[in-house]
Amino acid sequence: MEFSNSLIDWYLQNKRNLPWRNTNDPYQIWLSEIILQQTRVAQGMPYFEAFIRNFPTVLDLASASEEEVLKLWQGLGYYSRARNLHAAAKYIVNELNGVFPSTYKELLELKGVGDYTAAAIASFSYNEPVAVVDGNVFRVLARIFNISSDIAIPKTKKEFQKLAQELLPIDNAASFNQAIMEFGALQCVPKSPNCEVCVFNSKCLALQKKIVDKLPVKQKKVKVRNRYFNYLIIIDKDNNFVVEKREDKGIWFNLYQFELLESDDKKKLEDVVAEIKTKFKPQSVLLKNTEEIIHKLSHQHLYIHFFELKFDNSIEKAVPISELIKLPFPIVIHNFIESNYL
After folding, report:
1. 33 is an active site residue
2. Which CATH number fits the domain that encloses residue 307?
3. Is 219 among the domain residues?
4. Whether residues 149 and 267 fall in one domain
5. Which of 33, 128, 182, 308 is catalytic?
6. I want to staple 231 with a disulfide (CB 3.0 to 4.6 A). Which of 68, 83, 258, 280 is the partner?
């Protein structure tokens, strides 16, 4: 109880004024939680505001096309979040008569909603006493209570969940969950936290043992795959562009792109040009970026070149630039279009 009270007192004095904290509307809270997965608040805020502006209710979101949703999401990454968000909105409208689920258990039925997100919505909207456990909570609890279990191992999640649930005040779940996440985001940060001003500095076991920088323990390492993308900007005699929708279930599923030549190994640019000339027989080929663009994703590094191919005939299904910019693209392609053709 002392831990919970101290944490909530800290929160009330230090919390950020965020729009999703000024409501108990489950739609807005759900939207904010999905946006903030793998995303910093500063980056996510304008996206949250844009979604609320364009889709003020779950019915509005469900009624939108997938392309509209993906276009609004453009630049946030992890696009499966947007597709799951859209699918869940349609499920709520079509299967639940537009009534948002009101319990932790029911929320877990929504596509893209796991234990953490369900606990966040259930507690923030309905004050259901279910503790949240995310990266911030792992860090705070691991340090204060000196827990060295590897958080990359699934069974460790149960250990932290049990402790968080024991610490959770039954009658004030919303404030506690907000507080512990905010404490991890603002005070007990991953690197070089200012422990001198921490309200728990006399009780933090990691600080006493001088192992704050060692916790939490996460030993699983992500293997990064290198991929080499050569995008071909095919432009016909009417200055229309050829684009295609990605149907590979991997990255950027259902987003648009230019014709792609991909390889697992780096090729010489002159070899790529020779391949383009042989395969496509364009009127001209122009390398648009001599220095490759490196686009880093969580498990992949993409090394990208863009080639402009001009043709002296009309191409069926090619679209003008005015239509092109309405389509959802991966942000690296969107930025290239904006810099070179707008």
Report:
1. yes
2. 3.90.79.10
3. no
4. no
5. 33
6. 258
Structural domain including 49 reads 2-214
pLDDT one digit per residue (tens) for the chain, 342 residues: 789 999 999 999 999 999 999 999 999 999 999 999 989 999 999 999 999 999 999 999 999 999 999 999 999 999 999 999 999 999 999 999 999 999 999 999 999 999 999 999 999 999 999 999 999 999 999 999 999 999 989 899 999 999 999 999 999 999 999 999 999 999 999 999 999 999 999 999 999 999 999 999 998 777 899 999 999 999 999 999 999 999 988 899 999 999 999 988 999 999 999 999 999 999 999 999 989 999 999 889 999 999 999 999 999 999 999 999 999 999 999 999 999 998
Domain count, the chain: 2
- pTM, two decimals, is 0.90
Query: Domain ends where: 214, 247, 266?
Result: 214
